[in-house]
Specification:
With 99 residues, this protein is mostly helical. The chain is built from two helices and no strands. The longest helix is centred in the C-terminal third of the chain and has 64 residues. It is rod-shaped, with a radius of gyration of 26 Å. The two termini are 37 Å apart.
Length: 99
């Protein structure tokens, strides 16, 4: 059941990355564009970075809960399948012993 393995950690890490990259890019390009751009660009870049960090932090908790709920559902499903297989084995043994 390898296809049921979901690496939510990678997803969470990637989720906040675009905001951080955009903010870092703006900060790197701001001094090149000149002092006027720096005065405008730096606050915008800081806001973008802050937004990326906040989204990343919030998403960690949400994705952690989703992963936990998904793992619980998978475990319950596996337990039900094991129980059904056990019941089928018991039924087959009972019929073969009676016959």
């Amino acid at each position: 059941m390898a296809f049921l393995k979901l690496d939510v950690g990678d997803l969470v890490e990637d989720f906040g990355l675009p905001g951080l990259v955009i903010g870092a890019g703006v900060l790197l390009l701001a001094p090149i564009a000149g002092p006027a751009w720096t005065k405008v660009g730096k606050p915008i870049a800081k806001t973008a970075i802050k937004g990326g960090i906040v989204a990343y932090e919030k998403s960690k908790g949400v994705f952690s809960e989703v992963r936990e709920a998904f793992e619980d559902i998978v475990a319950e499903s596996q337990a039900e399948l094991a129980e059904a297989a056990e019941q089928k084995t018991i039924t087959v043994k009972a019929h073969s012993e009676a016959g």
